Each structure stands twice: as structure tokens, then as C-alpha cells.
Amino acid sequence: MDKHMQIMNKEAKRNASRGLELVSCSRARTRQLADLSEEMIMEILLRLPTRTLASLKSVCRSWRNLISTPDFTRKHLRRSCLRDSSLTPPRIFYCTHDGWYGGIESFFQPSMLDNPSKPTKVARFSRGGYRIVGSCHGLLCFFDSDADHHIHAILWNPCTGFIFQSPQINGRSYFSGFGYDHLSDTYKFYATITKKVASGVESSARIYTFGPTSSWRRIDDIPSTLLCPRTVYDPCMADNLKGVFLSSGNACTINWCVYDVVLYFDLGKETYGRFTLPDRDSNNGYSWTHCTSLYVLRDCLSVCYRKTQRWIVWQMKEYGEAKSWTPLATIPFHPQLYDPLQPLYISESDVLFVMSRSFKLVLCNLNDGSIDFSMIDSCSNGMEFCLYLSQYSSFRMAYIFHESLVSPNGLQSNSSKMLLHFIKSEPKPKPNLSFTW
Amino acid sequence: MSGISDTERMITLKTVEGTLFDVKSSIAKDLKTVQAFIDDSDDDVTSPIPLPNVFTRELSRILDYLNNHHRFRSGIEKADEEMARYDAEFAKSMSHEELKALILAANYLNVKDLLEFLNQTVADVIQNKSVEFVRNFFGIENDYTPEEEEKLRNENEWAFNGVEQD
């Protein structure tokens, strides 16, 4: 018996690193239930959705600390990206043009019919002028612009309340983008900045890497297209000044659609590149002045073109390979559909959600090719917020983001007062939902 | 090594209460702690292996789970459906205390698949439950001051929507 005990003790010591307690034989006669160790609790918490975890910080101090560690948030993020997307269901973030209001809405899912009391969340910024740039890993990125032409880059995680504001830079921003550089494990903000100087106007490309001591770093060799006033001030480019972030294979890039090419900036190597958009020969009656916008669907760059009597959504299966542009879905003409059509998201059941102006939704089933026009009543529940927002100057872009608990490494909130606060929307009458999924 | 094939060998395990369980060595392989003990031993293990942290009720459940899953895996059709049904019944048959006790035992014995399943089960139980419920479940004391709690609630205002009452 002695020898067995020795060997089991050795095994128990090995197990001790997994947070177990060795209960000696005599004491174990009583049913003394040891608490679950922190490691065991972490394994359970990693399987919970982001919002639940945000509320569970209130359980006790050690849970709040555990849930906030970069190690935990990174594991949770990886888990939700790779294994279980139900941990971070998609949300839509809207922003008004004047930069005063932003809102977060649950993404349109059939479950909204069962749970009609889900509230919409409207955030009011402390002043106007907040422009959303993009989102990544649950972090929303803005820049603010005011009459004095100063800019700050701002990061916000709505789930944790983390807000971080960069130091100021003088000038106006035109092209911008936000993304994650996996080479350096940092979040970067890119902007072309133009400022007035004694001799006229000076333009440069700048990177701000979110961090406690970072500054606006200058990047050389900026392609002339990004500085050319004809491009920059072209009204049809207005929506395309915000680049789209894509992480694919080895490269993390910010992508802009500039007429018939995609111009990109590699966040890791800090170099530029370009490739063509699909289907751009003159036979298709496509004017060079027409701009389309870029979207990301299932980690692939996508565009949506208007052709006669229909729209076509294209997807770039292999990033950077112009030959790999593949038609994904065709949406036939419908009297209530107007440009631009925004392909937003592909659900797990392979339904592509495309949004048109005035919040009309098109659902394209990628498996059987069927198209469903969900003409959502303007009083319907899920669109309460949209109705609210539509009182203000119309917004154009809806940003899909996936909630997370992430903050950039080593960064604490640095806003002494909340830049944003939520306001309660007024209760609306019960909707008359008239669509089917 | 003796000529007896692995699947025929039986291992005997002894729980805290002294109950003996005969386990096929193919099942014992899933109890990684026990397997490590066997691998570390110089001679063939003949006498019962004591498990000072494991009670009869838990070991019985663990062996039940493993035996059934081995049976399903070696079966031909419909294994997935049957396994899902078994798993659901298995989870439902336990109280919260028994669930926790089983996690502790499965953790000690290092039974990977069962642990995955139990962790997911507990996650499903506590999702959408109140903070108070979760504290009770894990036996955790609230160490916040009322002001700190209020502050946290405000910061996470929207996370508190959609929570079931106890």
C-alpha cells in the first residue's frame, strides 16, 4: 500500500499544477467538496457569450480580474472566431452623419421574433463629429473631427466600456482605416492627414499604434492616388474613404475601393499594393466614375455591383488573386430596392443578408439560390432604432461587429469622463410583423 | 511483456469509501491520471489502485459515461443521435452539487472528453442566470461593496438585459 500511495502522491503533485487539492484518506471520509479551481472555472467561462461574461464580472473580484486578463480575452476571442461563433453573435453599429449619435442593434435573426422585448441601444456622444472608421475584434474605432482641425483616434469596446483616445494630430483626415496587426500584436489606425502650412498644404500618411506611449508615425511612399484631390474630393468616393480591414492568411490589410482597383495597405509590412476588381471591362456598360464599396463576408473581400435589372455580389476567394473573384449571389430588381446595396453578413445557415436604403433587407439563400425580400415595416420592433436614427441625417454605412472583451495589450481606458453614454429609447407600439424568414 | 492483449487486462480501482471497480484497460486509458500511474509503475499493476480524491458515486458515473461512449463509438449507425440522447439524460440526471462533484472527479482523473461535456453543461446552466444564482452555484461570496457593485452594473448596463429571475 505504501508504494502505491507514493506513486499516487507523485501523480497528485503533478496534478497540483492543475489546481487540485490532495485530500488525505482519513479526512476524505466526510463529503468535503473542494471548490472548483480558477483554472476549472476559466474552462467553463470560456464557453459563455461575451455579454454574459460582462455581467459575470459582478460575481466577485477574482472573477472580474480573471475575465479582464488579456490571456482570457484572447482565448475567448480565438474560441469564438474558430470554434463557436454563437459566443459572439454579430451586432450592427450605426452612426449618424453628423457624428452625434451611434447605435448598436442585434443583428437580424429569426430569434428576434421570439424575443421582441430586446432593447435597442442608442449611444449619444458627448459632442458631434465622431466618424466611425471600422471595427476589429469587438473594438469600434472612430476619429473625431472638429472645426479646429484636430483629430484623435478613439477606440471603444461597448461590452467592457473600455475607451481610449489617442494624442491629437493636427489636420484633416481623408483616407482612414483600422485593424489588427498580428505580427506585432497591436491595433493600428491609418490615416492620410492633410494640414495647412505656410507654403500651402501638406499631406502625409500616418499610423497610430494604440499604446500608452505611441505617437502618430509617418509612413513614406504613399501612392499618389490616395493624395490626388480629384479622388479625395469625388463625392462618390465619400463612402470609400474608410478602408475595410481584412485578416487573411499571412496578411492583415486595410483595403480601399478606388474606382476599378482595390488599393491596400499591409499593416504588418507597412507597404501598399493593388489588385483589380472583378468584371470591369467596358462591355458591361460600367462607367469609370462609378464607385462601389468593399465589404467582408466570411473573411473574404466582397463587392456588390449594379447591372441592368439586377445586382451581383462578388467574393474574392483568395485574397490578392484577382482571378479568384467569384460571383456569390444575384439579386433581381425590385421596385423598393435602391442603391447602394450593402452585403452585410452570411449566417451559419448560409443566408446572405443584404441591406438596401430605408432598411429593406434581402435574404439570399446561398444553398438553393432563393431570394427573399423582407420588406420590414417601419414600425417593426427590430427597426425601432432605425426609425429613431432616420429622424437625423441619413447614415450610410452599417458596420457589423462581433462583441468581445478585448482591450489592446496593456492599455487602460484613458477617458476621465465617458465620451459616450447610452440613452433609453422610447417604447413604441407593438409591431405588426409582416415578413417571413 | 506478457502475451495477454491490452483489451483483456483488467485494472482495479478503489474509491475513497473503499469500493472496488474492475475496469477494462481500454477504458482506463481515458482516465489519464490512472494511465500515468500504470505507465510509471515498474511492474504490472496487480493490486487495486487507490483514488483518494474520488468517491464511489462519481467514479460510477464516470465509468458509466465512458463505457457508453465506447459502445456508441464502436457501433455502426445512429451513434450520434443515441449519444446525444444519452448525454442529455446524463446531464439532466444530476443536481448542481453532483455536477460540480463530477467535474472535480473528472478533473482529478483527467478524463478529457467528459470534462469538455461537463464544462459545456455548466456553461449552459449558468448562461442567462442572475449573478446571485451563479454565486450560489459555485459557492462564492460577494466581496464587493454596494458602491462597487452599482458602478459595475452601470458600466455593464446592457449586459444585464435578458436575464432570467432565479
What this model shows, in words?
The complex is a heterodimer of chains A (437) and B (166). Chain A is an alpha+beta fold. Chain A has helices at residues 2-16, 38-45, 50-56, 61-68, 70-82, 111-114, 229-232, 384-390; strands spanning 90-95, 101-106, 121-125, 130-136, 139-145, 150-157, 162-165, 169-170, 172-181, 186-197, 200-209, 216-219, 244-248, 251-258, 261-266, 271-276, 294-297, 300-307, 310-316, 325-332, 342-346, 351-356, 360-365, 371-374, 398-402, 420-423. In chain A, strand 18 (300-307) and strand 19 (310-316) form a beta hairpin. The longest helix of chain A has 15 residues, at 2-16. Chain A is globular. Chain B is mainly α. Chain B contains eight helices and three strands. In chain B, strands 2-1-3 form a three-stranded mixed β-sheet. In chain B, helix 3 (56-74) runs antiparallel to helix 4 (79-92) and helix 5 runs antiparallel to helix 6 (112-126). The longest helix of chain B has 19 residues, at 56-74. The N and C termini of chain B lie far apart (58 Å). The model of chain B is unreliable at 159-166 (pLDDT under 50). Chains A and B meet through helix 1, helix 2, helix 3 and helix 4 of A and helix 2, strand 3, helix 5, helix 6 and helix 7 of B.
